C-alpha cells in the first residue's frame, strides 16, 4: 500500500480547537448557558471521536455502542464502591470493562459485514442493557448506581480537587486532548491506513494479504475502551450510572452526532456534532419538549441533501474560497 504524505503530530487546527475549549468556562455563563454543559460537551465529544474510529474511519456500522459507554460508567462506579476510590484506578476499570466486553462482541461479529454487522451490534447492545436492568444486586437495576464521587486527581505529591464543574471541565479537557491526539496519530498510522482500505473494499483488503478479521476486532476493542473512558467520566460528572445510557436510543445519539457533524469526511466532525446536538437539546429544549423532532428534521435534511454533514460543508466552502 502506498504511504500517504507525512502528517504533523500536532496541527494548527488542533491547537485552535483545544484553546477554544479552554476559554469556555470564561464566557459560557455570560451567553446564558451553564458550566456543566461544557463538561457534557467534552465528554460526548470524546465519546463521538472514539465511536467514529469504527463508523467513520473503518466503515463498520456499530449501532449498539451505547453499551460500551454504559459499561464504562458502571465499571467506574463499581470499582469505586467495591475496590478502591482512586480516580486513575476507576478510569482504568471503566476502560477495562468496556474493552473486555468489546472483545467478546468482536469475537462474534468481526467475520460479518454490512447489515449483518449492524444487526449484531444492536443485538449485543440490547443484551448488555438487559443484563444491567436485571442484575439489580450489582448494578442497582433501573435505579442505577447513585452517589458516585468526583474523585480528586492525584499526581504524585500534588492533588487537585475536581468536585467543582469548572475543575472537572479542565480535567475532561485534558482527557479530550490526550484522546484526540492519540486518535489523530492512529488514523494516520499504517494501522489507520489498513482501516481505510477495509472501509473502501473489505474483500480487496483481504486479497492483498491483510488479516481483516483481526483489524476489525482490534478497532472495535479500542473504540469500546475509549467509549468506556468517556462513560467513566460521565458517571463521575453525573454522580450516578443508569442503564438508560446503554439503551438503543442512547446509541442512536452518538450516531447522529457523528453524521450531523460530518464524521464520515472529517476527523473533527464528531466534535462539531456533539456541540450541535447538546446545544440543540438545551436551546431548542428551552422552548419545546419536542426538541428531538426539530433535531431529527435537521438530521434527515442533512442525510438527504448534505450527507457529508456540517464539517463536510465547511470544508467544501473553504476549498471554494
What's the arrangement of secondary structure elements?
Layout: H1 12-22, H2 24-27, H3 35-55, H4 66-82, H5 87-109, H6 114-134, H7 136-139, E1 145-146, E2 153-155, E3 158-160, H8 165-187, H9 190-200, H10 202-207, H11 212-238, E4 240-241, H12 248-261, H13 269-283, H14 291-305, H15 309-320
Antiparallel strand pairs: 1-4, 2-3
Helix pairs in contact: 1-8, 3-8, 3-11, 3-12, 3-13, 4-5, 4-6, 4-11, 5-11, 9-11, 12-13
Write structural notes for this entry:
The protein has 321 residues and is mostly helical. Helices cover 70% and strands 3% of the residues. It has 15 helices and four strands. It has helices at residues 12-22, 24-27, 35-55, 66-82, 87-109, 114-134, 136-139, 165-187, 190-200, 202-207, 212-238, 248-261, 269-283, 291-305, 309-320; strands at 145-146, 153-155, 158-160, 240-241. The strands form two sheets. The protein has a two-stranded antiparallel sheet with strand order 1-4. Strands 2-3 form a two-stranded antiparallel ribbon. β2 (153-155) and β3 form a beta hairpin. α3 (35-55) runs antiparallel to α11. The chain is globular and about 50 Å long. The two termini are 33 Å apart.
Unreliable stretches, pLDDT < 50, 5 or more residues? none
Helix content: 55-70%
Mean pLDDT: 92
Estimate what percentage of residues fall within beta strands: under 5%
- H-E order: HHHHHHHEEEHHHHEHHHH
Q: Based on helices, strands and strand pairing, what is the structural class? A: mainly alpha
**How many alpha or pi helices?**
15
Radius of gyration: 19 Å
Strands ordered across the widest β-sheet? 1-4
In terms of quaternary structure, what is this? single chain
Strand element count: 4
Q: How many strands, what sense, and barrel or not for the largest sheet?
A: 2 strands, antiparallel
The rounded distance between the terminal residues' Cα atoms is 33 Å
Shape: globular
